[in-house]
Design a protein that fits this description.
hydroxymethylpyrimidine kinase activity, binds adenosine-5'-diphosphate, Ribokinase-like, 35% helix, binds the ligand Cc1ncc(COP(=O)(O)OP(=O)(O)O)c(N)n1, Hydroxymethylpyrimidine/phosphomethylpyrimidine kinase, 3-stranded antiparallel beta sheet
């Protein structure tokens, strides 16, 4: 009998299901890895933006971590929304006890809607506490500029930022996501040995809510299977490209990506998706 693989996401919620823990669990499931979740913040949000945020008590986050690790050791871990310095300190202590487990750090700072998901003062702390523990860090362009502390205006700058996150900040790998570029959707990976460009057609759609979470969750699921970071990122790129191609025209704002999009590949859109 084959081994049951598991992945843990430590993140905030999206009650409309497009981003955060809900997106992560859907992505894990699609990649046939059993998903587990520890809640950091409950976020009242939808396709239009964030309405309110309630942080979990630190002691309760710790209890949830204990509940998971005392029973099922995950094959890979992902972090998403970690809003405060105190949460970062707690989670970093926990991760340090489990350094053999691949760890994907999605440095969620601001939602596409413009709403802040991390306290501004914590941007420095995440660099110091969580980035050095990561098997791979997955910033979008604005997040990469904050980690790199410089503007990123070209593909060459994306390469420099990826190298900086590895060589100066201590992550094992970094992929700078180019969803916010104007041209093709080009992501730049530095895996500690080489730079890799992963490019895909840019789909003209506003329904990209949850792309970053889904991409990083697929990387996590693949790392749980024991593949290399390069293989995991390539798979995630293909998965997210289909998820955006078949994105869902749901809600009144930016609809979610389609977690079963890769299963529709080669089929016509199923009604009202990509705009
Ligand atoms: N319109 C698009 N068409 C194709 N791929 C896209 C599009 N927007 C984002 N992507 C891809 O989706 C992934 C997430 O990127 P990005 O949008 O930058 O992250 P975030 O959601 O964290 O801001 C990346 O692989 C990026 O290249
Ligand atoms: C709880 C929570 N975590 C992360 C995000 C950000 O999601 P992301 O996939 O980066 O993309 P957008 O939703 O911002 O387009 C979130 N919104 N909520």
């Amino acid at each position: 009998m084959s081994k049951i693989l598991t992945a843990l996401t430590i993140a905030g919620t999206d009650p409309t299901g497009g981003a955060g823990i809900q997106a992560d669990l859907k992505a894990f499931q699609e990649r046939e890895v059993f998903g587990m979740s520890v809640l950091t913040s409950a976020v009242a949000q939808n396709t239009c933006g964030v309405q309110a945020v309630e942080h979990m008590k630190l002691s309760f986050i710790e209890q949830q971590l204990d509940s998971v690790f005392n029973d099922i050791t995950p094959n890979a871990i992902k972090t998403g929304m970690i809003a405060t310095n105190e949460m970062m300190e707690l989670i970093s202590k926990y991760l340090k006890k489990h350094t053999a487990i691949p760890y994907v750090m999605d440095p969620v700072m601001v939602a596409t809607s413009g709403d802040a998901l991390m306290e501004e003062e914590s941007r420095k702390v995440i660099r110091e506490l969580l980035v050095p523990l990561a098997s791979v860090v997955t910033p979008n362009l604005p997040e990469a500029e904050i980690l790199f502390e410089q503007k990123i205006a070209s593909v060459a700058d994306m390469e420099l930022a990826a190298r900086y996150i590895v060589n100066q900040l201590g992550a094992k790998a970094a992929v700078i996501k180019g969803g916010h570029l104007k041209a093709d959707a080009l992501d730049v990976l530095y895996d500690g040995a080489s730079i890799h460009h992963l490019s895909a057609e840019r789909y003209k759609t506003k329904h990209t809510h949850g792309t970053g979470c889904t991409f990083a969750a697929v990387v996590t699921a693949e790392l749980a299977k024991g593949v290399t970071v390069l293989e995991a990122v390539k798979l995630a790129k293909s998965f997210i490209t289909d998820a955006i191609h078949y994105s869902l025209n749901l809600g009144n704002g930016n609809g979610p990506t389609n977690h079963w999009g890769y299963r529709l590949q080669g089929l016509p859109n199923q009604g009202g998706q990509t705009q």
